[in-house]
Design a protein that fits this description.
heterotrimer, A mainly alpha (312), B mainly alpha (261), C alpha+beta (368), A: 312 residues, mainly alpha, MetI-like fold, globular, disordered N terminus, B: MetI-like fold, 77% helix
Chain lengths: 312, 261, 368
Amino acid sequence: MSSDADTVVKTIVAPASAGVAPASGSPLARLAGLRWGDYLGVAPFLVFAVLFLIVPTAWLVIGAFQARDGSFTLQNLIDLGTPQIISSFWISIRVSVASAVMGAIAGLILALAVIRGRLPEGIRSAVLTFSGVASQFAGIPLAFAFIATLGRLGLVTVGLRLVGFDIYRAGFNLLSFWGLTLTYCYFQIPLMVLIIAPAIDGLKREWSEAAATLGATPIQFWRYVGLPVLWPNLLGTLSLLFANAFGAIATAYALTGSSLNIVPILLYAQIRGDVLNNPGLGAALALGMIVIAALANIVYLVIRTRAERWLK
Amino acid sequence: MTRAKFWSWVIFILGALYFLGPLLATVQFSLSIRRTGYSLDAYTNVLQSPAFQQTFTYSLLVGVAAIIVGLLIVVPAAYFVRLRAPQLRPIIEFVTLLPLIIPPIILVFGYIRLYNSSSILPLTNSDWGTNILLTLAYVALALPYMYRAVDTGLRTIDVQTLTEAANILGASTPTILIRVIFPNIIVAALSGAFLTLAIVIGEFTIASLLNRQAFGVYMQNVGANRAFEPAALAVISFVITWAAMGAIQLLARFAPKTQRI
Amino acid sequence: MKLHSVIATSVSVAALLTSIAPSYAAGLDDLVAAATKEGQLTVIALPHDWCGYGAVIDAFKKKYPGITVNELNPDAGSGDEIQAIIANKGNTGPQAPDVIDVGLSFGPTAKDQKLIQPYKVSTWDSIPDSAKDADGYWYGDYYGVMSFLVNDDIVKSAPKTWADLQKSDYSNAFALAGDPRVANQAIEAVYAAGLASGGKAGADAGTAGLGFFKKLNAAGNFVPVIGKAAPVAQGTTPIVAAWDYNALAWRDGFQGNPKAEVIVPSDAVVAGVYIQAISAYAPHPNAAKLWEEYLYSDEGQIGWLAGYCHPIRFNDLAKNNKVPQDLLAKLPDPALYAKAVFPTLDEQKASSDVITKQWDSVVGANVQ
């Protein structure tokens, strides 16, 4: 990637290297190089995390290895191997990836338009606050809203039918994989907008001006300056969007409850349901979800570390 | 109009259609409670209950508390991790994803086990203790969003240079955090605050199992098994949460900052 | 209206109680005193619209004003209630449920796990043997039968039987009120469809039910949305299979918009029993016992009837002419209830096993 624009980025963006980097060498030496004060800052977070996240999770993980009477067993993990459960993990991953990617792209475009698009001032505030609300608009209200809009008797469906276009005859079905993904995007896109907004703010005007001075077209600016700078943030948010969709159950349940076989629904069935009630299996399912989320996170970290190498 | 502005408008309008469409459909349905035409009956049914104001105020207060505690926990941690301890980053990021994966009902049962009357920290016995437990539970639920927002904000500013400069001028670490770092990440902090508030207002399972009269519990009680009231409730909840966020944003204009909000 | 009838009957009940057993009445007074001293009762999973629980709780609070009722998670399923007891084992705060109202199959398992304690209410003998645990650990409280809620504005001619549902008139019309892999209501609907299709009680009906739904789905009549009041009114799921008490409550909630009716399909009438139990770790055991006494008193049982649930002592009450005529008039035809089939614990377990495990593979309604 050697171009004038690239040089521009390196000279403008690369910060002065600080004199407070931890000592290089073995991880232990690096840890030892930290001062007390550093840990003090992270301590509240770690204490909170342990008390309010790690311990309940640990109980859940232990539960995955317990039979009904409390004895140790691997049966729950073995039970994860049934075709129904494997296909449920696979569908979960597909829905999560699809809605995360679509949400990320659409969210980025929307955020760019609203923040850098020279629209009237109030639109930015309105969109950001709206995104805050919409990002948590999920579950039964969201499912119902989409049914009322794009269901067979939904407003838009009926409206389009009046002008002669029947989307259902054309093959669209809200109660399908893509319909569910479309519904998930309702909270994925706002989440993306909110989280990427400060990063887009950080793309200084001087950079695009400098790039323009050097003769770069807008597309070149984005390809060589804008996107690379945003890339780590994009990846981080993508990872968040994936986990967000992966753990979401209420919306899917309300929309296609009896026909969609995703992991949270199975988990729900084992731990909360009226009939099945095998908490050990439910815990094993949750453990599987944690493992997958961890793997996704590792993939994200690897990609991001590579991308950040030249930034710092 | 420049080309950029034109496309921005196109994108904005498409976005508006996608997001306002389902809301309009919900509103239309909520107004259809009578056979004889549109009416606000569903809304009056819902708003009549005295519990509406009480539970909403309660949830709002808990939400603000959760925002403050969340920022207090996350900002220093994200700052130090970015500045001095990048090797802790993978662990912390993974931990912040846990609340998205673990169902809230498992979390709340875990908290009840940990903090019930026979434990070292009997939070469930008193009203105040349970309120604190609920606030901390919401901080946990909002952690992924709060952390990611603050981290994005920190990544965007040059933390090391700012810290160095402040150090040279003789600032202590708390001063750096409060007077240098935080004003620069207001936008990110606001994002996290919005997300936290939205979570708290709508949350139901944890509040209900901890026996707290929160807004989510009220909504469930009023609307769960009716036809039109849940739609009215969804609209009301959407609008007032949006208003609350608008209020937060207005207040944030008074905070010291270097970027426009 | 419900409260009115409850209060009306409570007068006669009060007279009844004071006249029957003086020694027993003294026991009840002691219980009331002990319960009032505890001051609280924590219940869980009792939505106000389910069996008229809202009115029942209000009547209880009115009768015993010294007792605050904490209502946890009305959205909870039976599994949640059991988990709540387990999680609250050391907790004496108001988050620990005192009493639970769960599906029939949860009784024996809760007893095995030592989560519930025995108590025989004073009206114990009038509870049918098949609906209670001999040692008093759990006892049936009410039942309902599987029925259809039909949105008459959208569905021109309502189906009268399970077999009717397969007709092409009902394209994209029928939904279950829950997930058949999770919710009792949905599973029993599949079971009822199986019985109607000729399956024998137990696992056989489960398999037959799955076959029925496979056909229904292939014909395009099945909608995978979970049917509740809102989707029925909106039109996405104009026909929903639900317990009659739910269907009737939803119908009432519409208040005429849309016009709806509740139909008990005549080719198979399946009844579902729920049970009461007191938690072994209840922080307020006396309040719990008083609550049970209230629920099983004539007043409490009629309170459930006002919510369209058939109380477990219905036959006893009817025999003694305790059931108000106007309430009876609001319920569907008693002749249908006479044909009701009560699946035994074993039959329920076997059929649920089949239905929950094979729903995805057989019915193939899996979203693509």
